[in-house]
């Protein structure tokens, strides 16, 4: 598979695991039972008691985005001590890595942690929690969090970085469960369409024809404009890497940054990183300018607190020739990585050293 096709496949399946079966669990439904193999840290939670509120979050040791969200969950647990946070490790390739990982995280992971109950000889996606929670709710990616109200019902499902607002509203008693349920059903329908689309994209990718792939993406966006939020970055990559039409790619990229992805930091960061990543093809000045614009907006949306976005922004500054801002921003990324796995901190420091060295040479 050509590199640009592999990158597109990665965008569409990032953080996912194999999934089978139909969705039957959603917002407004009673939360499933807690069925874990072992509690690694904190006070064990064997059942979800009525009258109490919980956050059940799913993660894995191999999942980079999961590592980034762990300190954020710890902050929320401290801010909302009346909620019980339970982090459940799922989809693990080797569960023996869980305990050392949790020990390494230390106080950065200051809430209850457990391992999924995986049958002997079974795969990570065959665990009881993986099936009764994640698969049942159609959650194909991690990290994923479930917010449980006092009635034992699921009040919200989503990415942990978006948990703060619904958590505060549930705490204050102002959460509209009916509206949240309607939104959840809409999102489930969109996920079903996305899986159907992925089958078509798979066939187009096998053909090796970027124009065929572009046609499938355009048809999907025309049929359902809301899907452009998910398909915009892959479409940009097909234009830039497959069709190799720099003018159309930059025009479309600016359209994404200015409208479709304007308030969505994650895809903005994906767009920018696809251009400035160290292993990406050499980008022209217009593309780098687009990456810088996307990264700046993503950094603004996250208030400069996301290390991955700060890292991307620093790279964009560096490639645009602003070494001083690159160094300043990468220093922030390194600082944000305090407590992160050693390999993450090491990679960030290496890039900072690269920018400093280039600055001195200049």
A few lines on this structure:
The protein has about 350 residues and is an alpha/beta fold. The protein folds into two domains: about 180 residues, Glutaredoxin, CATH 3.40.30.10; about 120 residues, Serine Threonine Protein Phosphatase 5, Tetratricopeptide repeat, CATH 1.25.40.10.
The percent range for strand residues is 5-15%
Task: Tally the helices.
Answer: 14
The SSE string, one letter per element, is HEEHEHEHEEHHHHHHHHHH
Measured between the Cα atoms of the first and last residue, the distance is 39 Å
Give me the side-by-side strand order of the main sheet.
Answer: 1-4-3-2-5-6
Bulk shape: globular
In CATH, the topology of the largest domain is named Glutaredoxin
The CATH superfamily of the largest domain is identified as Glutaredoxin
Structural class: alpha/beta
How many strands appear in the DSSP assignment?
6
């Amino acid at each position: 598979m050509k590199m640009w096709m592999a990158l597109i496949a990665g965008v569409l399946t990032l953080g996912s695991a194999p999934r089978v079966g139909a969705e039957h669990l959603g917002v407004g439904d009673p939360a499933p039972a807690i069925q874990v193999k072992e509690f690694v840290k904190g006070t064990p939670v064997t059942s979800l008691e009525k009258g109490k509120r919980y956050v059940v979050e799913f993660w894995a040791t191999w999942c980079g985005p999961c590592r980034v969200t762990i300190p954020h969950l710890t902050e929320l647990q401290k801010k909302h001590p009346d909620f019980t946070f339970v982090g459940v490790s799922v989809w693990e390739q080797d569960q023996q890595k869980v305990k050392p990982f949790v020990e390494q995280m230390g106080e950065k992971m200051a809430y209850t942690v457990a391992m999924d109950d995986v049958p002997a000889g079974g795969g990570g996606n065959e665990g009881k929690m993986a099936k009764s929670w994640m698969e049942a709710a159609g959650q194909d990616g991690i990290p994923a969090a479930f917010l449980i109200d006092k009635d034992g019902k699921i009040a919200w499902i989503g990415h942990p970085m978006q948990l703060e607002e619904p958590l505060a509203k549930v705490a204050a008693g102002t959460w509209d469960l009916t509206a949240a349920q309607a939104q959840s059903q809409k999102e489930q329908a969109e996920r079903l369409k996305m899986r159907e689309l992925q089958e078509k994209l798979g066939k187009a990718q096998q053909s090796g024809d970027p124009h065929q792939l572009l046609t499938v993406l355009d048809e999907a966006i025309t049929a359902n404009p809301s899907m452009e939020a998910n398909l915009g970055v892959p479409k940009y990559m097909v234009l830039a890497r497959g069709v190799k039409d720099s003018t159309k790619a930059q025009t479309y990229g600016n359209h994404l940054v200015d409208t479709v992805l304007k308030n969505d930091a994650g895809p903005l960061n994906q767009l920018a990183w696809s251009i400035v990543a160290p292993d990406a093809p050499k980008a022209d000045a217009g593309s780098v300018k687009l990456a810088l614009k996307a990264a700046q907006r993503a950094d603004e949306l996250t208030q400069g607190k996301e290390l991955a976005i700060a890292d991307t922004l620093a790279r964009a500054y560096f490639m645009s020739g602003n070494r001083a801002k690159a160094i300043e921003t990468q220093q922030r990324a390194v600082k944000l990585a305090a407590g992160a796995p050693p390999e993450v901190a090491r990679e960030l420091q290496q890039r900072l050293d690269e920018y400093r060295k280039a600055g001195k040479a200049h």
